[in-house]
């Protein structure tokens, strides 16, 4: 059995660390990741250990006190004593790695020394965590995101203010669970019935459930992909343009279809996939706990934006079954369009180079006439892969029957 070994502070764990650990894990039978924690560090070592255990459940995570000097010989001797043997392979992204491994008689593998795959460091994140949320896994980003708590009596506007703040800061909000609990207690009662009583345990349950929902929401605050797509969304004015398309379609009686993207717990068992597919599964993006339940759906990463809910939840919009990767081949969108004798489609939404382009390609293959609204979508920008939005717009020009702006699309729909 090949034993691999990684040591570091992971202060805090970030995408660069994840790349290092995943690259190492693929090359060995068993991987031990050792966290060296110092009492003066502000993020407890036990918390960093819990994060890495969640992010890398197939690795053995160990925690040791950081009591040694920055001396490769000391760390090599300590590692052999601690493990009871020398590791077969040592993986690092640091200059000390080759000497440290050689002192133990281990083979060394350098991973992304120049930080080209993930240009980030623990120091950079500690200096400005909110500027680098896209480099943090959901469990870690939840620790750093700022939370605004609204407190007040009933019917004082807390919900309205929370919605407005979330829209202003392009993030999500968490409804008051106590109100939901109270409405369930009142269900089926009439005005002549005595009001239900409360117990001490109920208040504890409400507080715990509220905190659970807040902690879960903090994992996706600002959107888990916002760091990649945010600039494109702002530049294209995507949200406002989608709102105009919704409003015009409803006003002019155009049928509206939503092809949602949901992932369920059983999808986590998938054995292979591309870069973004892995990211969606790891970050539980568009995650729903059960295909037959909407528990936890409201204001989750899978929910609609609040400003779009009046359009989608009007009883007329057709929400088809979810697509699972990028295209509509796995849902009933084509069937619904055919049954309504629709052969022309105006296409918009997210993401430009993934779901939108995949829907475009499949619908064209199925014989539909497609116009894409290029400023009612947006795409990711990756430091090494490139600009997904620009790639998509190029392909729209080659593939679509027409490429429109929102102004042009609204004008055509109005006519």
Structure in words:
The chain contains 17 helices and twelve strands. The protein has 415 residues and is of the alpha/beta class. The strands form four sheets. A five-stranded parallel beta sheet has the order 3-2-1-4-5, sandwiched between helices. Strands 8-9-12 form a three-stranded parallel beta sheet. The chain has a two-stranded parallel sheet with strand order 6-7. The termini are far apart.
Quick recap:
With 415 residues, the protein is of the alpha/beta class. It is 42% helix and 12% strand. Strand 8, helix 15 (352-365) and strand 9 (369-373) form a beta-alpha-beta unit.
List the helices and strands and how they pair.
Blueprint: E1 3-8, H1 15-25, E2 30-37, H2 45-55, E3 60-65, H3 72-83, E4 89-92, H4 97-104, E5 107-110, H5 122-127, H6 138-144, H7 158-168, H8 177-186, H9 200-218, H10 226-236, H11 238-251, E6 257-258, H12 275-282, H13 309-312, E7 318-319, H14 333-339, E8 344-347, H15 352-365, E9 369-373, E10 381-382, E11 386-387, H16 388-399, E12 402-404, H17 406-414
Parallel strand pairs: 1-2, 1-4, 2-3, 4-5, 6-7, 8-9, 9-12
Antiparallel strand pairs: 10-11
Low-confidence spans: none
Strand order of the largest sheet: 3-2-1-4-5
Written as H for each helix and E for each strand, in order along the chain, the element string is EHEHEHEHEHHHHHHHEHHEHEHEEEHEH
Which topology of the largest domain does CATH recognise?
Rossmann fold
Number of helices: 17
Question: How many structural domains are formed by the residues?
Answer: 3
**Beta-strand level of the residues, as a percent range?**
5-15%
The rounded Rg comes to 25 Å
The major β-sheet equals: 5 strands, parallel
CATH architecture of the largest domain: 3-Layer(aba) Sandwich
